[in-house]
TrEMBL record:
It comes from the Bacteria. Gene3D superfamilies: 3.40.50.360. GO terms for molecular function: electron transfer activity; FMN binding; NAD(P)H dehydrogenase (quinone) activity. PANTHER family: GLUTATHIONE-REGULATED POTASSIUM-EFFLUX SYSTEM ANCILLARY PROTEIN KEFG (PTHR47307:SF1). Keywords: Oxidoreductase. This is Putative NADPH-quinone reductase. Residues 1-166 form the Flavodoxin-like fold domain. Pfam families: Flavodoxin_2 (PF02525). InterPro entries: Flavodoxin_fold, Flavoprotein-like_sf, KefG/KefF. It comes from Paraliobacillus ryukyuensis.
Amino acid sequence: MQTLLIVSHPDIIESGSQQYFLNSIKQHSNITIHHLEHLYPDGKIDVAKEQDLLKQHERIIFQFPFYWYSATPFIKKWQDEVLGEGFGYGTKRQPLAGKEFGLVMMIGVAEREYQAGGEELFSISELTKPFQAMANKLGMVYLRPLPVFQFFYMEEEEKMNNLIKYWQLLTMDKDISLATREKWLIEQLEQIVNPDEAFSPLTFAIERIQANRDKIDELKMVLDDMFLK
């Protein structure tokens, strides 16, 4: 699966949260990082190029700071121009139908405030309904969004937990079965194992996961055989 990560941030170099997440995927061959402000400093979007990129990827993710309960102005401009008539609507063909769409949002307010009775009053799910509607209009599958709340107040463990969720959103199949999660985790671990080490905790973890999966598969075969007789 190829993922197109469309990033918008007016000053991305100075954004610690953006750098933290983006630096973790720079070497990933199945992810295309597409920073709009960097590519189009004059604001003139190459619409045909953007539409071709969308066609070439199976999963499309918007990543942006959550400004005034929505995306950045450049994301809105991109939507207006790239998803215009003849591509996003007004045609029987739906070039993005069946593709997956998701959001990664950096949010400066605490999560507890995004609910009835909280300072922000509405939930993230409610505030992102325009994106849900966009995905529906395009025939896309809307994925569970990843809101990252108050990154700079996080402990390292919480940052890592969010990073794993980030990797999952960008690279893991939508199927959330245990087998899928195990397969995905093994693939991620294999990418960071040092091949020069004769033994490492990561190698041991991979072997244990695979061994447990074999046992589960054997048990499933036995149960299937019992109930099919």
